[in-house]
């Protein structure tokens, strides 16, 4: 992993570590994002009584820890394994995974540019890191922002050309597709207008919404988005419109298809 942060980690920071030594009452680790090492006391490995630390960790294993204390004078960093919740662990591992993906791209690109991965990485990060904390965040913005100005970073023209191609291919966002069937009917005296207004309101919820008439009061609903959370919000907003449509004379039901 080429990514390294300068200085020391901050208290409460979530960091990725690699176990180096295991003693009866403590675990020593290398903090992979920093040029530092730290210690996890047995009481911070897991709640409850621990008979053997090797039942919880092993040398060479990577673990996600929380920084408890940093003594810069003594060079001691105390860490906790048990105080990291599942969300924090997942987010940190995903962050590292994305950064390694970015580094893999650099390694491939360095062969095309006939240089070393380390030299290309330094050339890029020297320009990028004053504005971005991680390389993968820079690459993702390149892909998502159609008005992204790569020229402002002052990179060599050949690097810019190769970088645009490689990043577009490797970091292109995957489209999320949520779909299902809407069944809608009414015996209201102005039922046709009521259905028409509801369907128009559904189409206006988001540009990601597509409705297709299937016949007999049934419609295919397809939502295509690059953001899963936004797609889910669109589903909820549509469900609210369908709930509002329902009364003693009218019914609207959405049956969602399961994702593969």
Characterization of this structure:
This protein has 260 residues and is α+β, with helices and mostly antiparallel strands. It has three domains: 14-84, OB fold (Dihydrolipoamide Acetyltransferase, E2P); 88-170, DNA polymerase, domain 1 (Orthogonal Bundle); 176-256, EIF_2_alpha (Alpha-Beta Plaits, 2-Layer Sandwich). Helices cover 37% and strands 27% of the residues. It contains six helices and nine strands, in the order βββββααααβαββαβ. The chain has helices at residues 86-112, 117-128, 135-144, 157-170, 191-204, 228-245; strands at 14-23, 26-31, 36-41, 62-71, 76-80, 176-186, 209-215, 218-225, 250-256. The two termini are 33 Å apart. The model has no long low-confidence stretch (mean pLDDT 93).
Number of domains: 3
Report the end-to-end length measured between terminal Cα atoms: 33 Å
What is the strand content?
25-35%
Share of helix, binned: 25-40%
Order of helices and strands: EEEEEHHHHEHEEHE
Please outline what is shown here.
The protein has 260 residues and is of the alpha+beta class. It has helices at 86-112, 117-128, 135-144, 157-170, 191-204, 228-245, and strands at residues 14-23, 26-31, 36-41, 62-71, 76-80, 176-186, 209-215, 218-225, 250-256.
Chain-wise SSE layout:
Layout: E1 14-23, E2 26-31, E3 36-41, E4 62-71, E5 76-80, H1 86-112, H2 117-128, H3 135-144, H4 157-170, E6 176-186, H5 191-204, E7 209-215, E8 218-225, H6 228-245, E9 250-256
Parallel strand pairs: 3-5
Antiparallel strand pairs: 1-2, 1-4, 2-3, 4-5, 6-8, 6-9, 7-8
Helix pairs in contact: 1-2, 1-3, 5-6
């Amino acid at each position: 992993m080429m990514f390294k942060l300068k200085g020391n980690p901050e208290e409460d920071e979530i960091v990725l570590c690699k176990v180096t030594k295991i003693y009866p009452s403590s675990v020593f680790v290398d903090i992979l994002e920093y040029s530092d090492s730290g210690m996890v006391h047995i009481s911070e490995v897991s709640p409850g009584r621990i008979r053997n630390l090797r039942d919880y960790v092993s040398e060479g294993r990577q673990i996600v820890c929380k920084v408890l204390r940093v003594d810069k004078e003594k060079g001691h960093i105390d860490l906790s394994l048990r105080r990291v919740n599942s969300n924090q662990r997942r987010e940190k591992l995903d962050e590292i995974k994305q950064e390694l993906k970015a580094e893999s791209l650099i390694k491939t690109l360095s062969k095309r540019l006939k240089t070393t991965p380390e030299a290309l990485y330094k050339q890029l990060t020297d320009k990028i890191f004053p504005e971005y904390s991680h390389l993968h965040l820079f690459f993702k913005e390149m892909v998502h922002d159609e008005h992204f100005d790569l020229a402002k970073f002052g990179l060599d023209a050949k690097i810019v050309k190769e970088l645009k191609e490689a990043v577009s291919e490797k970091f292109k966002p995957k489209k999320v597709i949520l779909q299902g069937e809407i069944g809608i009917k009414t015996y209201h005296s102005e039922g046709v207008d009521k259905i028409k207004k509801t369907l128009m309101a559904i189409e206006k919820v988001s540009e990601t919404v597509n409705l297709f008439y299937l016949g007999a009061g049934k419609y295919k609903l397809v939502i295509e988005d690059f953001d899963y959370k936004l797609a889910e919000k669109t589903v909820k907003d549509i469900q609210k419109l369908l709930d509002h449509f329902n009364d003693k004379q009218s019914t609207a039901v959405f049956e969602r298809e399961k994702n593969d």
